[in-house]
Each structure stands twice: as structure tokens, then as C-alpha cells.
Amino acid sequence: MLTGKQKRFLRSKAHHLDPIFQVGKGGVNENMIKQIEDVLEKRELIKVSVLQNCEDDRYDVADQLSAGADAELVQVIGHTIVLYKESKENKQLVLPS
């Protein structure tokens, strides 16, 4: 689990990122989760945009993505979800303790 301090740190880092994935009418699927896992391994911190035509609640989408990709949910702000997962091979972010 992330502490409040770590989440604030990650939110500040994520502020400058653009969303890489979009969740639309089809909702969350296995293929999307697999791609998000791969990107998290490379980048550690990503944003996902929930489109207005998505039928699922954005908090449900956030829970599905974080659980499916085994990632930490940093924040849901508006229609944007911020996810973090520590990389095994490409560690870039050092979290404050």
C-alpha cells in the first residue's frame, strides 16, 4: 500500500503525463489489462482516460484496472485514472518513505 506522502509524490509526477489508454463503450477487457501491465513495467506511472460513452462507473473501472494489472490506484480525478506499479527491470521512480 502507498502512504499519503507517496501518493502526493506520484500525483505530482503524473501531472505532466498524458493519458495513454482510453476506456470507452466496451469497458475493461483482458487485452487492455495485458497492455496496461506491459506499459506499467516500462513506465511505472500512467494515466488512463475514461471516455464519456463508457457505461461503467469510473471508480469501478479504476478498481478493475488496478486489480487486473496488480497496480496501485494513485488517484481518480475527473475522468482520468492514475496507476502506479513498481517496475522489476526499469525502475525509474524512487518513492519517499
Automatic annotation (TrEMBL):
Any single Pfam family the record assigns to this protein = CRS1_YhbY
InterPro entries attached to this UniProt entry = RNA-binding_CRM, RNA-binding_domain, RNA-binding_YhbY, YhbY-like_sf
**Sorted alphabetically, which keywords does the UniProt record give?**
RNA-binding
Q: Does the keyword Transcription apply?
A: no
The source's domain of life comes to Bacteria
List, for all copies, the residue spans of the domain called CRM.
1-96
Entry-linked NCBIfam families: RNA_bind_YhbY (TIGR00253)
Name used for this protein in its record: Ribosome assembly RNA-binding protein YhbY
